[in-house]
Amino acid sequence: MPEYNKLTPEIAGKLRAIVGERRFFCGDAVKEDYSHDEMPIYGRAMPEALCLVESTEEVSEIMKLCSAERIPVTVRGAGTGLVGGCVPIHGGIVLSTEKMNKILSYDMKNLVVHTQPGVLLCDLAADALAHGLMYPPDPGEKTATVGGNVSTNAGGMRAVKYGVTRDYVLAMTVVLPDGRIMKLGKTVCKTSSGYSLLHLMVGSEGTLGIITELTLKLVPKPLMDVSLILPFADIAAAIASVPSIKLANLDPQSIEFMERDIVDSSAAFTGNAVFPTVVNGKEAGAYILVTLVGDSEAQLTEKMDRLGAVAEQVGAYDVLVVWTDNLKKDVWAARSAFLTVIEAETRLLDEMDVVVPVDRIAEFLVYTHDEAEKQGVYVRSFGHAGDGNLHIYCCSNDLEEAEFKRRVKLLMDACYAKCTEFEGQVSGEHSIGHAKKEYLRESVGDTAYGLMGAIKDVFDPGHILNPGKVCHTV
Amino acid sequence: MPEYNKLTPEIAGKLRAIVGERRFFCGDAVKEDYSHDEMPIYGRAMPEALCLVESTEEVSEIMKLCSAERIPVTVRGAGTGLVGGCVPIHGGIVLSTEKMNKILSYDMKNLVVHTQPGVLLCDLAADALAHGLMYPPDPGEKTATVGGNVSTNAGGMRAVKYGVTRDYVLAMTVVLPDGRIMKLGKTVCKTSSGYSLLHLMVGSEGTLGIITELTLKLVPKPLMDVSLILPFADIAAAIASVPSIKLANLDPQSIEFMERDIVDSSAAFTGNAVFPTVVNGKEAGAYILVTLVGDSEAQLTEKMDRLGAVAEQVGAYDVLVVWTDNLKKDVWAARSAFLTVIEAETRLLDEMDVVVPVDRIAEFLVYTHDEAEKQGVYVRSFGHAGDGNLHIYCCSNDLEEAEFKRRVKLLMDACYAKCTEFEGQVSGEHSIGHAKKEYLRESVGDTAYGLMGAIKDVFDPGHILNPGKVCHTV
Fold first, then answer.
1. Which residues of A touch B454 (CB under 8 A)?
2. With contacts defined as CB-CB under 8 Å, which chain A residues touch B358?
3. How far apart, in whole angstroms, are the C-alpha atoms of residue A461 and residue A175?
4. Nearest-neighbour CA in chain A from B21: distance (Å)
5. Per-residue confidence at A116, pLDDT binned at 50, 70, 90?
6. ipTM of this predicted complex?
7. Which of B8, B261, B300, B411 has the most CB atoms less than 10 A away?
8. B393-441 pLDDT, tens per residue?
9. What sections of B212-352 are H helices per DSSP?
10. CB atoms within 10 A of CB B10
């Protein structure tokens, strides 16, 4: 494969002609923001040019040009990724979907929304609610774009009940690397019509094609919900309760876990101690936060009673009902603040987003903390107990960057190996980007990794789309 | 691509050595059953040999041999398909999974079952229930294998609430055409770890690899359910009620529709008229059958009240509650007998399994019936109103085979074109096989169809696995 070409003034002129003067930036006119995502430890790279695209046709024209000229193209949503997925590590142009931020229409008879990919998750969620509908995927990062969520198959808090982003993508418009426009899927939930290119696109991190329009499934807005906090002696006891909760026919919307220290940090940060630290004279070491949904107070009360019985059996210190809107807001604000709290406390950060079978979470966390202590790395963790997805953050504190990176590498190598041993996956929702490529290869094995590479060749024979990511090495 | 080779006595000897004398059949020893599925109108083809495999290792050895010798291999589950998917149209061997019929183990902490692919759907469903769990996918054909269900992404009656087979496949073992063994997925529900080869395998009809083990997600068994029959004046009125039912926050498990004539036939066939034909002096022309699930009688009663209010608004003649176990059994037996009834009444049959957006069902049915009348083809239909999946059967009655095929071809051409115009999909759950290839190509377009073909090349460069199916032409 020959090397990529650099952007010449002539090509820049053609790009400027496609998107227009006001949406084309070149050289020093490109803001530094476009050189990194929210995990800059994996490196920064300035693009040679930036196009703020507005339509499928523009994207198609750009791809035809860049394909012919062998200029790499990296798509970027809101840049909230954590694995370097939108960083143009081989130069070329960044194609930002930030201006493709229109919710196009609702189809109330088929319960779907047609949207551009640059719409923010929080905006889509609010707009759907205003239509009496809910968009169920609910990742912690609300200012991500829905296109980014689809490209990483983001999961979020409600996955236990509702599944992940993949489960809500019914159709999309895709621009292939050579500029051809392809429509995948329809406004239907059931299909057995050839290989699912749609499911191949979901989670492909902008390496196979560029998503320019989405049809997403919605559900009726749940009538009522209540959250419950279950304090436990320690994380092992907390996690051990999860299978019983899942078996109790409560159909919970979320089952989150959190360790005591991060709850304390969050309380200090928000100034609002909503999680009880001492319950009936006993220190809580970890918590399970459950959200139940229902149609009526009677139904929720009945579900809460059953959860209470389960909680007693599994050794919870108490069941604290979070029923009022204000308290609910505070509790979920505390939960949502975890990453912000961690970022505020440390200079440098690295992260793991592994998924392990639910019954291995506690064991995995114990292993991680032991290894972290061995390597001298400070670790904070929280995550989705209901689906085994852990967010584990390594904080540099006072360590020098080089030393921090050296220690984190040793810790990550050990933890990802343990994750594979536990039959887990490298990433639950943050994806691979260029940061986790080696761990992916080790986890899935050479045969599957080789097939992924061959699929990349099929869609992008010139390797110009987001090069160096997922299963591609330049 | 060179032609396929014929089975020589030497290769036959090697196959016999792999699976053993008692599970290898050759020439006349192969039963005629293995030459067709349940829709023989698409042609029969005898395999040169039949292997009743029992393990992943045997499958791997067979594939290594057949790959080297260029012998086509077609996998077969229970042979209940309707599009010729398991018919060895280019000869070679049929590899039947019927002996791989063991449910291997349950993991009650992670709510999954590990199973061989040859287990029948009815056996898995019953066994899961005995463990207090439910396997949600519920296609009408209960004697299909789960491997076949995964290979076609079968949907069934409960898809409105629970989704389709795809949503329950967490992991699988796959033997590639060259004999390599690959494991895809893990016992986790959330993942963002490279391209989803797992989702590519689901619905690929045995053309990319051979599934030899499955890890399937289960859910707690619902505590209670009730079915309700809503009679309407005609099919248009019945279908028009569906969006309102879906928006009423009832989370129904099924929403089925049926036309009056098929209900009459079913009543005559089973000797049990469970659907009322005259309601308050008015002739019912069509029905909606809704199943609701819940945790308590109180909750179900409350949901029934709300459904009753919706039914009145949308013009249902009545709401008949099917509450007792016996009546429920009769109603669902009548529903399940539809295909059997149709088969019993006609000599030759052809079928369509399109999906259209829910709000286009009635319009599509009217079009189909008009076209059928124009072509002189007798048509029966029923299906899944909640997800737009229609099962439309063309019955030959007294027509000669050649004339029937000629007329059906004209009818199908028109209906599939209309389906594409309505933004529908060629197949909801019966798949493509070799019967629907041209309709698939027309529906998805040359770009997507070409990508499917290129993916086939990646997995099966020698084109020896189930040749001539889905997107492959010899």
1. 458
2. 109-110
3. 14
4. 32
5. very high
6. 0.95
7. B411
8. 999 988 999 999 999 999 999 999 999 999 999 999 999 999 999 999 9
9. 235-240, 242-247, 260-270, 297-313, 325-336, 338-345
10. 8
